[in-house]
Design a protein that fits this description.
Number of strands: 0
Shape: elongated
Helix content: 55-70%
Number of domains: 2
GO biological process, one term: negative regulation of apoptotic process
Pfam family, one: HIG_1_N
Organism: Sarcophilus harrisii (Tasmanian devil)
Subcellular location: Mitochondrion membrane
Keywords: Membrane, Transmembrane, Transmembrane helix
Structural class: mainly alpha
Strand content: under 5%
Distance between the termini: 43 Å
Length: 93
C-alpha cells in the first residue's frame, strides 16, 4: 500500500544555486530585473548623500518609481520574449 510519505525526495535534492540557475534559464529576464532593482537601490543610496535641497521623501519616491519601472520593464520584455519563443520561434509541425 503506497502512501504520500513514500514519495522519493530526489526531486527535492536541488541546491539553491542550481535552482536559481534553472529558474534563470526558464525566465532569463527575472534575474535581469532583480539586478536592475539592486543597481537602482545602490545608486539611490549613493546619491542620498548628494541630494541637495531635495526632501528625503521625494528622493525615496523617485528611487522607488525608478526601481519599480525597471522591474516592470524587465517583466514585460521577459513576457514578450517568452511569447515569441512559444508562438513564433517554434517550428511548425
Amino acid at each position: 500500500m503506497s502512501t504520500d510519505s513514500d514519495i522519493t525526495l530526489s526531486t527535492y535534492d536541488e541546491t539553491s544555486g542550481s535552482k536559481l540557475a534553472r529558474k534563470a534559464k526558464e525566465a532569463p529576464f527575472v534575474p535581469i530585473g532583480m539586478a536592475g532593482f539592486a543597481a537602482i537601490v545602490a545608486y539611490g543610496l549613493y546619491k542620498l548623500k548628494h541630494r541637495g535641497n531635495t526632501k528625503m521623501s521625494v528622493h525615496l519616491i523617485h528611487m522607488r518609481v525608478g526601481a519599480q519601472g525597471f522591474v516592470v520593464g524587465a517583466m514585460t520584455i521577459g513576457m514578450l520574449y517568452s511569447m515569441y519563443r512559444e508562438y513564433w520561434a517554434k517550428p511548425k509541425p
